[in-house]
Amino acid sequence: MPTDCISFRNTAYVSKLICDYVENRAELKSLYNRFPTIENFKAQLEAKQSTFSSDKRAVLVKTLTAQYSQFQTTALTTKVIKSLENKNTFTVTTGHQLNLMGGPLYFLYKIISTINLAKTLKSTYPQQNFVPVFWMATEDHDFDEINHFNFQNKRFQWTQNTSGAVGRLSTSNLTEFIEVFSKALGNSSHALELKTLITNAYTTTYKFGRCHTFFGSYLIWFRWITVY
């Protein structure tokens, strides 16, 4: 399949600072420790292995196990969480601010890129194990930034008076929004499945750390990838 690649600098959407960093400009090297080349991960792995103690690993596994106890997990998920106790296991983490229905499409690319990096690192450093982690940024207070999304050239927005961390917002008043968006999806078999996913996600309260109800948004998106 034909593809085209456009550099960050040529998109006009990325700042000069970020473009200079991605291009590994020498003038920025004093601002960070290691540039993320595959070769440089060797030193990074050694540094993390020496500073992240067994006690910290135990706390991490205990916390993740408690959080995932609310869901029906696969044997592989349980095994991966348990593997974090091993000093040769490392996480590759990405995160995204909680958004209505997941927000911009690029958050999916962030997840896919993180999974691919974990695979590449395992291939390069086969003696180590790598676990891709998605971190939900729930403490942001900017509701106006996260209360809408675009679908089929239309803007869908959740309107309410609110304050505080968006990860603690209740989605109990999203009934009208769900009805409006459901009409836009149509009545195909995939659409009906998505309607059910949306309704269940936004009417179920998840006690997931500090993120209470918005977690449902991300359950929808992970399933959405497999449906459309």
Descriptive report:
The protein is mainly alpha-helical and 228 residues long. The chain has two domains: 100 residues, no CATH class; 85 residues, no CATH class. Helix content is 47%, strand content 11%. It has ten helices and four strands. A two-stranded parallel ribbon has the order 1-2. The protein has a two-stranded antiparallel sheet with strand order 3-4. A hairpin with a 2-residue loop joins β3 and β4. α8 packs antiparallel against α9 and α9 runs antiparallel to α10. The chain is globular and about 50 Å long. The relative contact order is 0.10. The C terminus is likely disordered.
Topology:
Layout: H1 8-11, H2 16-22, H3 41-51, H4 54-68, H5 75-83, E1 89-97, H6 106-124, E2 129-137, H7 143-146, E3 148-151, E4 154-157, H8 175-185, H9 189-203, H10 215-227
Helix pairs in contact: 8-9, 9-10
Summed up, the domain count is 2
Structural class: mainly alpha
Rounded radius of gyration (Å): 20 Å
User: What is the overall number of helices?
Assistant: 10
Order of helices and strands: HHHHHEHEHEEHHH
Distance between the termini: 20 Å
Q: Which residue ranges are poorly predicted, with pLDDT under 50 across at least 5 consecutive positions?
A: 207-228
Compute the average pLDDT: 83
What helical percentage do the residues reach? 40-55%
Number of E-state strands = 4
| Biggest sheet layout | 2 strands, parallel
Q: Strand portion, in percent?
A: 5-15%
Strand order of the largest sheet: 1-2
Overall shape: globular
